[in-house]
Amino acid sequence: MSASGSAHSRDVLVEVAPGGALLDLRIDEPALRRGGQALAQELLELVRRATAVADQRARHTLGLTDRDAEVLGLTADTELTEHAEATTPDTWRAQ
């Protein structure tokens, strides 16, 4: 189970597991031209958002309570969780 995040320009891609462990990272040449600081900030934001999605998928798939998710170190950031929830297909939602 994982989630990906990519820059709008598609020249940076991250894939993370629930909890934020980095599984894959791709940085294409154009992204390097933005400079180290800009690229670092973009990477951190992509990892943060992808982690929220992966965490939400894990919560749903495993049927975790808020307490269980907290113990496992899954995202508790309300804004990110709402963003992840908004991108979760209806077919994944509990009926």
TrEMBL record:
Lineage: superkingdom: Bacteria
Name used for this protein in its record: Uncharacterized protein
Source organism (scientific name): Actinokineospora bangkokensis
